[in-house]
Amino acid sequence: MLRTLWDAGFPAYVVGGGLRDTLLGRPTTDWDLATAALPEQTAGLFDDAAYENRFGTVAVRRGGQEYEITTFRSDHDYADFRRPHRVEFGTSLEADLARRDFTMNALAWGAPDAAADPALVDPFGGRADIASRLVRAVGDADRRFEEDALRMLRAVRFAATLGFEIEPATLAAIRDHAPLVAHLSGERIAVELGKILAVPRPSVGLRLLADTGVLMHVSPDLAAQRGIGQNKTAGEDLWDHTLRTVDAAADRPVVRLAALLHDIGKPATAADGHFYHHETVGAELAAALLDRLHVPRSTVVAVTRLIREHMFRYVTTWGDSAVRRFIAKVGPDAIDDLFALREADNEGSGVPRDADGLAELRARIDAELAAGPVLDRSSLAIDGADLMNELGLPAGPALGRILAALVERVVDEPQLNDRPTLMLLARDLAARDATDAGR
Q: The domain containing residue 19 runs over which residues?
């Protein structure tokens, strides 16, 4: 694609994260190009091009991969701390690089035309900062973050994902401008938070968010964990426990989010050294935060269920029916994630991952699941239509109560789950319900 642009007489360069990762020796599929060609001119050079947005980006798909080609530009009027109100297309590569966030991303490799040899263009010392493993703002750090407050979260994310340090002046500017995060959309925050949680040690980025004050403007409830003591690891507070738990959690988005938020209810429920019902309060606070971040509803439901159930207590005297009730309460589809969260919580508390009889309970759950237990109405040998047809019961709350009672009986005694037996039980339940209604 560079050659196509060069042959048409346009300067063209590889820019951005793909070039940075190449210099770091990291694999990348993120290839962006910048050119002096206007979007319409770029689109005219490629049969499979699509002009995407007002910022001058043309998408070209080749070999199953999408490349973005953007016209050199400069940004103006960042009045909302989120995005430029207008852009100006230009012909200057240096002006284009000057508007970028960090020096490691303000690099280009290419040529002004087909006659010139491709070369690295590095006007802000990005290659040296990459070698020194530094995240440094391009030019005036205050201005960069006032232009787009998301750059503060990106700085933290790059530090966490690349193993870089944030250069002192850039770090100080993040602290000074942390309140601007309040202007960001929930979706943009969620994307960066998700990337931080996906690294091998999310605590690196999370601690930076807290230390710079950014966390306070993402989640005051999480920020409130700092300084709250609990009887876990000596010398560490609740926030330290949360960070340990996230680092110990399985690298699955729902589990990592649940690990981050599993104790979000503790500051609000702290009393006399205890955190009464913090899992219930925490599930509500987590749901409110995730909704504000516009996280998909299915993820909100999954995460809050894990938070609500993570304080379960197993004792070896549980009968098989108690194990089945536990499975039904949690949901078979959430068992793996719940155990992953509990194991991480244990490690974050300084105890063995399988403490509290987790291995034994898991073995018993696996045995029950292998037997195909009845856990809800869908597995009963009869359904509501059967009861209406054979017993003449009308649709309504009474029918629902009878079906729920049948599920309870079959969870206790799986051998009852055959059609004739359930019909007899349902007939008896219906008679009782009618008698109770007539009193």
A: 2-132
Is the predicted pLDDT of residue 395 greater than 70, yes or no?
A: yes
Taking 60 as the threshold, does the pLDDT of residue 431 lie above it? yes
Under 8 Å CB-to-CB from 268, ≥6 apart: which residues?
221, 224, 278, 281, 285
In this structure, are 173 and 285 located in the same domain? no
Long-range pairs, 50-59, Cβ under 8 A, ≥24: 54/87, 55/87, 56/87, 56/89
Q: Is the pLDDT of residue 297 over 60?
A: yes
What CATH number should be reported for the domain holding residue 93? 3.30.460.10
User: How many independent structural domains does the chain possess?
Assistant: 4
Give the list of residues 6+ apart from residue 401 with CB closer than 8 angstroms, or none.
429, 433
CB 225 within 8 A of CB 207: no
Decide if 84 contacts 75 (C-beta within 8 A).
Answer: yes
State in Å, rounded, how far the first CA of the chain is from the last one. 83
Q: How confident is the model at residue 439, as a pLDDT?
A: 53
Report the chain's mean pLDDT, rounded to a whole number. 92
User: Percent of the chain scored above 90 by pLDDT?
Assistant: 80
Q: In this predicted structure, which of 171-175, 234-238, 366-370 has the lowest mean pLDDT?
A: 234-238
Residues 238 and 356 in one domain: yes
Q: Are residues 276 and 421 in the same domain?
A: no
Question: 319-356: per-residue pLDDT in tens?
Answer: 999 999 999 999 999 999 999 999 999 999 999 999 99
